[in-house]
Amino acid sequence: MHEGETIKQLQERIKQLELDNELLKARASDNEQLQAKIRELEARLAQYENAHTPPSLRRGRNRKKDQDRNNKGKPGQKIGHKGVTRPFTTPDRQVEVTADRCPDCGADLGSPIRTESRIIEEIPEPQPIIVTEYKIAHYRCPSCRKEVVASDPGCPHEGKFGNNAIALATTLKYEDRLPHRKVQETLKRLFGLKICPATILDLTRRAADAVRSEYDSILSKIRSAPILYVDETSIHVQGETHWIWTFSTPSETFFVIRKSRGMKVLVEVLTRRFKGIIVCDGWQSYVRFTKRLQRCWAHLLRESKEISEKFEEAIPLHNMLKELYEILTEALEKNPPPKVRKILWRLARKALRNWITKEYSIEKVQKFIGKIKNGFDFWFTFIINPGVEPTNNRAERSLRPNVVSRKILGTLRNEKGTSIHERIMTTLATWGQKGLNSLQMLTAKLAS
User: What is the pTM of this model?
Assistant: First the structure.
């Protein structure tokens, strides 16, 4: 296809879109907001009049070279930038710092000429452990003759270590990502608590048992979520490759570790009754599970950029995808009404279809086009469904702590460690999303 023919086709398409928009304007003449949205859409889509115009020359954009020339390259904050300092806290105590005599001549100093106030935040010195003996009373019920055992929130259900010790060891292991031996050294350094790595593992097991009901509650919320962000990455169990799956919403994150990367994990976790929209990458298991999908634009743009850096033929394609994504996300920032969203959805599909139906000679570019075609129905779900994000960054962010732990630990040892990892990481991640103090929450769970 010649460039002139391509431009002519694009111009005809734009003219048709303009006619469609004029028709919509006439039908919605009493809706000023809708008309304003359509006019804004027309102005932005005019940039597609020549698909071969590079982004740096398109109208309404500041060229990066011009921005670089205006930048003098001076380090530090810019003029007019307001600095931020740490706010002062309320002192717990006051210390009078005085002197009687001059350190040079020994003269009596008398009363101070002025007083300077400095507020210092300090941590306490390492504290010794508190050893408590609980004398637990047992009773015989005079009515039903059952034995009744008294309880205290500070006395754990099993073992010799208290709830604070269990909670701190667990957060050091899973939130601070310290190996068991480092947790051992930290507890000894801070509190003089002598404990072996095997016991630390058992403390995390007790913590996992304490949050089992929380784990089940999070799973229930995930299954009823209207929008879900799902991803998976490899993790080793006993040296064999498994997959850690994350299921995320803005307020919950749920993890499972399975040997499978297939659809059966989705069925197990979400059940066949799941009716929400899944935001995901292009892995085939998702499309086999549901057709209510949003494919990740971050993955798409990363791959198109990589291909464009290798093959000149793919440069216009990458520029188009990037520009189209920017137009759509910017238009949706103002939360347009459903009619405008439908227009955006229709025009976006036409723009993308125009590019993927072109002829490409390089095999890798052709394969990339094939990926776009295979997921064509799932690239623009976010346009007509408010609240759906166009990327799967939320799920990827939730996996990052697990990726770091994977690098540190190397492998989970057994099914017991896998179960502990799932429950603890799920509850810590969810509490973090809600702005809760994980150490306090875990201690409270252990005491309940």
Answer: 0.79
Backbone angles phi, psi at 237, to 5 degrees: -125, 120
Q: Are 130 and 191 in contact (CB under 8 A)?
A: no
- Measure CA 72 to chain center: 35
- CA dihedral (279, 282, 285, 286) in degrees, to 10, reads 20
Return the structure tokens found at 198.
């095997």
- Cα distances from 294 to residues 112, 266, 270, 274, 290, in angstroms, run 70, 16, 17, 15, 11
Kind of pairing between the strands at 253-258 and 277-280:
unpaired
Question: Where do we find the tokens 């990363």?
Answer: 302
Distance CA 395, CA 95 (A): 50
Q: Which residues are bridge partners to 148 per DSSP?
A: 139
Q: What is the pLDDT of residues 244-297, one digit of tens each?
A: 999 999 999 999 999 999 999 999 999 999 999 999 999 999 999 999 999 999
For the record, the structure tokens of 21 come out as: 């928009």
Average pLDDT over residues 135-152: 96
Determine the Cα–Cα distance for residues 256 and 243; give it in Å rounded to an integer: 8
Distance (Å, whole) CA 137 – CA 151: 8
Number of helical H runs and strand E runs in the chain: 17, 7
79: which DSSP letter? T
- The 10s digit of each residue's pLDDT in 145-188 is 999 999 999 999 899 999 999 999 999 999 999 999 999 999 99
Which one, of 439, 434, 418, 400, lies nearest residue 217 by Cα?
Answer: 434
Which residues does 441 contact at the CB level (< 8 Å), separation at least 6?
Answer: 427, 431
3-state SS, 21-41, equals HHHHHHHCCCCHHHHHHHHHH
Residues near 435 by Cβ (< 8 Å), separated by ≥ 6? none
Secondary structure letter of residue 445 according to DSSP: H
Q: What is the C-alpha separation between 243 and 234, in angstroms, rounded?
A: 4
Q: Which residue has the higher pLDDT, 55 or 348?
A: 348
Query: Is residue 206 pLDDT above 70, yes or no?
Result: yes
Tokens of residue 404, six digits = 């770091």
Residue reference for tokens 């809760």 = 436
